[in-house]
Design a protein that fits this description.
With 149 residues, the chain is mainly alpha-helical. 64% of the residues lie in helices and 0% in strands. The chain folds into two domains: 73 residues; 36 residues. Helix 1 runs antiparallel to helix 2.
C-alpha cells in the first residue's frame, strides 16, 4: 500500500482529492459572483439617462474572458485534462478555441452583411428609417366597368 491509511479507510490521496475539489468550488464561486456583479453593473449603467456604451462593451468583454476562464478551469479539473499530457490537452483545447473563433467570425460576417444590405453595398450612408405603416383606406376600391373574358 503506497499511501498512508487514516481512519475508516481514507487515504492521503483521497484527502488531497477532496481538498482539490473544494478549491475548485471556491474559485468557480468567486468567478461566478464577479460575473454576476458585472452583469448587474451593466444593468445599472443601462438604467441611467445617458449610458456609456464603450464602458458596457468593455464590461461585456471582461465577462466573456471570465466565462472562458471558468470553462477552461472546469475542463482542467473536472474533465481531468489538467492531469493529462500536453498533446492530449491540446487535442481537445485547440478545437474548442477554433470553435470560439468560428462563432466570432460568423457574428462579424453577419454584421458586415447587414451593414452592406442597409447601405446598398456601401453606395449610400446608413441611417435609421422610421417605421412606416400603411393603413388601408376606409374608402372602398373603385369598381371597374370592364368585363372579364
Amino acid at each position: 500500500m503506497s499511501a498512508e491509511s487514516t481512519h475508516l479507510g481514507t487515504t492521503e490521496a483521497d484527502i488531497a482529492h477532496v481538498k482539490r475539489i473544494w478549491k475548485a468550488f471556491w474559485i468557480l464561486l468567486v468567478l461566478t459572483i464577479l460575473e454576476l456583479a458585472l452583469g448587474l453593473t451593466i444593468y445599472r449603467i443601462d438604467l441611467g439617462a445617458n449610458p456609456n456604451e464603450s464602458l458596457v462593451l468593455m464590461i461585456k468583454g471582461v465577462i466573456c474572458i471570465l466565462t472562458l476562464a471558468k470553462a477552461f478551469y472546469i475542463i482542467s479539473i473536472f474533465m481531468h485534462l489538467g492531469d493529462e499530457v500536453r498533446a492530449m490537452a491540446m487535442t481537445i483545447g485547440l478545437p474548442a478555441l477554433l470553435f470560439i473563433w468560428f462563432i466570432i467570425a460568423f457574428i462579424a460576417e453577419g454584421s458586415s452583411y447587414r451593414h452592406l444590405r442597409n447601405t446598398d453595398a456601401g453606395i449610400r450612408q446608413y441611417k435609421e428609417q422610421p417605421q412606416q405603416f400603411h393603413h388601408p383606406s376606409a374608402e372602398p376600391a373603385e369598381k371597374s366597368d370592364k368585363k372579364l373574358d
